[in-house]
Specification:
Length: about 350
């Protein structure tokens, strides 16, 4: 199902140029994200319009992601792109499967929003000020695992709904706090709600969190060329490293894996400035009982190999066992798995995708 959000066509030399159709989900966050790409294209003289597409994840907002399938928020956009119903699809990059589809090209990865996670808590509290037993909502097993590993005695509970409904759970007292992606709040102008931005030493974000993927058909060189002007090389290198790590671990976006890469300036022995890519990652037990961390530094042009190398290091440290345990179903008698500080809630029914976080 598609809905077109019309923009005025641009008149050039007495003729009307056909607008490029940009596919997006219909949430406020998704529309805002796609709108930045539309506006950037219009700024360089290319008319563009948004086309809203319903995805399986939108049509079944409370169903377990595992029962809907891979790419619950991206498959419908890609189907429409393949059929020619849209020219461009804008995704939250972390929603995309790690396996590349040869039909499509990620023509641009614009500059990334702040990838950190954010705490929104009652009374302006920061994470360390929340009392033991405080109810903290999150949609992601990755966040739940890392919160438990901090040993604060928090009661981590699943969180459903769009950004507004999640924020209301705090303001109305249903929850003491929630943890969501800072990027989403920033894009819709709600950063004033944040009581603490969580540093990577506290919580590593999801691979490619805060980044957009601007996708088009691989057989459209004109479109690829224009969209490439929106690409940010440092963001692309960082995202490539993070997603290569995720792919090597054979883990999806619901896995308790955190990773963040940054292109930073360094100085060699002769005082010359050069760029390096720094990648940090973790694999966590869902109950918080164990967290494996590793890091690597190398050249930005080697981003993919750096990600794969760090993934292999995590596997050598025992990450496979942690990831396998996270995939195990609840015991048949319904009893919770053993947890650290608080029971491990069932997160399989929540949407892990950034557009809902």
């Amino acid at each position: 199902m598609t809905t077109t959000v019309q923009e005025e066509d641009t008149v050039t030399a007495g003729s009307i140029r056909a607008p490029w159709r940009i596919g997006t989900r219909g949430s406020l966050l998704a529309l805002t994200q796609a709108g930045t790409i539309r506006d950037a294209l219009i700024a360089v003289g290319q008319p563009a319009e948004l086309v809203v597409i319903k995805t399986p994840g939108d049509l079944a907002p409370t169903a377990p992601v595992q029962t809907i399938g891979v790419g619950v928020f991206t498959s419908a956009l890609r189907d429409e792109l393949a059929l020619g119903g849209i020219d461009i699809a804008v995704h939250s990059y972390k929603d995309l499967p790690t396996a590349q589809d040869p039909r499509f090209t990620i023509a641009a990865i614009p500059p990334r929003e702040d990838p950190r996670d954010a705490l929104v808590a009652r009374d302006g509290l920061v994470l360390g000020e929340l009392p033991a037993g405080a109810k903290v909502g999150t949609s992601a097993p990755r966040r739940a695992a890392q919160l438990r590993a901090l040993g604060l005695g928090l009661d981590i509970v699943p969180l459903r709904g769009n950004i507004d409904s999640r924020l209301r759970k705090v303001s109305e007292g249903e929850l003491d706090a929630i943890v969501i992606a800072r990027a989403g709040l920033s894009r819709i102008g709600r950063t004033a709600e944040i009581t603490e931005s969580l540093e990577p030493v506290q919580m590593l974000p999801a691979p490619s969190q805060g980044a957009l993927a601007v996708e088009c058909r691989s057989d459209d060189p004109q479109l690829i060329e224009v969209l490439s002007g929106l690409d940010d090389a440092a963001t692309r290198a960082a995202v490539l490293a993070e997603r290569s790590l995720l792919g090597e671990l054979e883990a999806g976006c619901t896995a308790p894996i955190g990773a963040i890469a940054e292109v930073v300036e360094s100085i060699d022995e002769d005082g010359r400035i050069f760029e390096e890519l720094s990648l940090r990652a973790c694999a966590a037990a869902i109950d918080g009982s164990d967290t494996l961390r590793a890091s690597i530094v190398g050249a930005p042009e080697d981003a993919a190999e750096l990600g794969r190398t760090l993934a292999r290091e995590l596997l050598d440290l025992g990450a496979r066992a942690l990831l396998s345990a996270a995939d195990e179903p609840e015991p048949e008698d319904g009893s919770p798995t053993q947890a650290v500080n608080a029971p491990a809630q069932d997160f399989t029914n929540t949407s892990p995708m950034e557009n809902n976080r």
